[in-house]
Amino acid sequence: MVHRKELNPERSPRDRFGQVVRALRDERGWTQDELAERLGCSGSHVSAIETGRRATTPQFARKLDRVFGTGDRLERQSQSARQTALLEGFSAFLREEGQAAEVRLYEVGIIPGLLQTPEYAAALAESAVKRGEINTDQAQERVALVATRQAALARTPAPLILAVLDEGCVRRPIGGPGVMDAQLERLLEFAEQPNTSLQIAPFSMGDLRPFNLPVTVLTLVNRSLMAYAESAHRGHLERESQFVVPILTSYHQLQVHALHQAATVAMIQQLRKGTP
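-> structure tokens emitted (276 positions)
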């Protein structure tokens, strides 16, 4: 008997869409290849849609509605499936991050996901819902993703994680005093780990700061490099060494000019005491 991947419709809108497609196909007694033939695509494409590995398009959803005779049901549902909380390019990055031997990250404005407490992550997601940027399902997806990413890096052997945070990350209040205090405590705990390094890039660095946007450089087990950077609307995973190496060089320059870890810890401790 062919193994069928268990679907979890609660995980994301994309997974819920895939479960509906599978259910409609099963009701008709079709295999994935038989459905694919009716749609004019490959069986692997149908499989990727059903298991949530690939987002559908409006055109493909309309084909599904026509083949299944479901009016515009799937086309309407596909809208929420496409409105994922993840930026374009981020899913590919996550797969690599979860297996990386070394993670070097720089963040601007907010604590990066790998270092966030659940309460801090929830406060950010709730604010995005209030601004109308995402819906409640997407907010839950963002919070769950923080825990998933952190769990993926809590393995043996542990990856080396080097974090440089813009000073605004630790001075910007998120979620109220209690949430922020717990988040700062989490940073101090992170700094104590044997496989981590924490630095703050102070405002006083001025134009010495080489990055204006968040950036992450991954070193994989085979020592190959890749870099991920994002704007407000999309992310880009770069695999070509000719482009990644200059980013890594700039990251090293950033570390040289940032506060060393002892000074970083001292700043965070002062912030927790409410002193400038």
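The beta strands are 102-107, 160-166, 196-201, 215-219, 225-230, 235-238.
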